[in-house]
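ligand=zinc ion
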Amino acid sequence: MIQYKDDCVGCPPEIGCLGISCPYSNIPITYCDNCKQESTLYVFPDTDEQLCATCMERELNALWAGLTFQEKCEIFDVKEVKI
Ligand SMILES: [Zn+2]
Ligand SMILES: [Zn+2]
C-alpha cells in the first residue's frame, strides 16, 4: 500500500507550510501488504496486492514449485537432447 506522509520540517515559520505545494508534505511511503515493512513494492499484473521483494519472491517460489517440469522447461526454453 502507498501512504502519504507529511514530513514538513523546513518551511519558514513566518510564512508557514506551503501546504499542498510544500515539497516535504505528501511524501509517498510504500508498505508491503503482507509483512507491513516499508520497502519497494512489486505487483502481479492482475492483482492489487503490493508486496516487498521478500514476500514477492516467496510467492514466485510457490508458483514455481507448482509448475510442471514441462512448464519450467518452456520458460527457459529447455529442449530435450535429440540423438
Ligand atoms: Zn511545508
Ligand atoms: Zn513483505
